[in-house]
Amino acid sequence: MPSAKVSPAFQQQTRGKKKHAKGPHVVNVRLLEDIRGYGRKGSIIPIAPGRMRNIYYPQHKAEYVTEAQLWTTNRKDILAERDFAFGVPQPEVDSQPAEEKITDPQMKLLTPKRAAEIIDHSIPPEIIFYRVPIAAPEPESAPPEPIGKSINAIGGEVPIRNTPEPRSSVTRIFGSVSSADIVESIKAMLAGSEEGARVVLAPEDVSIIEEENETVAIEADRLKALGSYKIEIRLKGVDPIQRLVIIRPQETEI
User: Fold this and answer.
1) I need a labelling partner for 29 at 20 to 30 A (CA). Which of 57, 74, 241, 244 fits?
2) Which among 33, 15, 32 has a CA at the least distance from the CA of 24?
3) What is the pTM (predicted TM-score) of this model?
């Protein structure tokens, strides 16, 4: 019996011999709820790995699908691409003559004050990301402490031990969480409402507040370790909005 043909978007990519080969451009996921512009609950679609890792997986909106699961899935549930038209209202036909239409670009723009109100109301106090932690090396048996010599007040030699500095407790991660990742997550939360989708936010509007003990975990606009970090969302002319970004270890069963 011939095997069913799978769309190229769902075929497993073979890794080349080059060590610098990039990862897949898409991953296969099953939607756990209806998502506007993507598809109906239960559909299996290919999406960008970053969107799955930063938004849909943490918010339990989708789950990863392995190649083995694809072969046991009903073919009608597998889509070659996301359904851009799903859940999107169709524009009404406007019978008004073109010469009578008045187009005002400013009608769709929100004031910074209103945008800040929407962000403050819609975004939870904690924005959660999941990343794979880098396993710490196995601690080696500590070598004997070197013994030095010191001269006391009466000229005698006194042995002293050189105590090493304590190890850092920071758990670094593969990849990072950047200001762009934070903005993308915020926009995904705001997209659920018509007014929230009109909020204009850029990575430069998000600042990471660096604490004294977080120097090794923050590089420029990127978070590089598990933990909690304060951020500020700054819009022109209004007070900054503070939120907490939490990076938790990602499960690696798949």
Assistant:
1) 244
2) 15
3) 0.53
Asked if residue 64 lies in contact with residue 254, where contact means CB atoms within 8 angstroms, the answer is yes
Q: Compute the distance between CA of residue 199 and CA of residue 112 in angstroms, rounded to an integer.
A: 9
Contact 128, 58 (CB under 8 A): yes
**Whole-number Cα distances in Å, 89 to 103, 183, 190, 194, 237:** 21, 25, 18, 11, 34
Q: Which residues of the chain have pLDDT under 50?
A: 1, 20-21, 99-107, 150-153, 162, 164-167, 254
Residue 174, pLDDT score: 87
| Both structure tokens of 253 | 């069963």
The secondary element (H helix, E strand) that includes residue 183 is: helix 179-190
The per-residue pLDDT for 100 is 47
Query: Other C-beta atoms within 10 Å of 114: how many?
Result: 15
Q: How far is CA 209 from CA 85, 139, 213, 231, 240, in A?
A: 39, 32, 12, 5, 12
Reported as a single tens digit per residue, the pLDDT across 75-94 is 666 666 677 777 767 666 55
Task: State how beta strands 126-131 and 241-249 pair.
Answer: parallel
Tell me the one-letter amino acid at 113: K
Residues in the chain: 254
For 114, the enclosing helix (H) or strand (E) is helix 112-122
Q: Which amino acid is at 127?
A: I
Question: Measured between alpha carbons, how far is residue 239 from residues 30, 132, 207, 234 in Å?
Answer: 40, 34, 13, 7
* 171 neighbors 184 (Cβ within 8 angstroms): no
What's the CA angle centered on 23, arms 20 and 29, to 5 degrees? 175
121, 199 Cβ separation under 8 angstroms: no
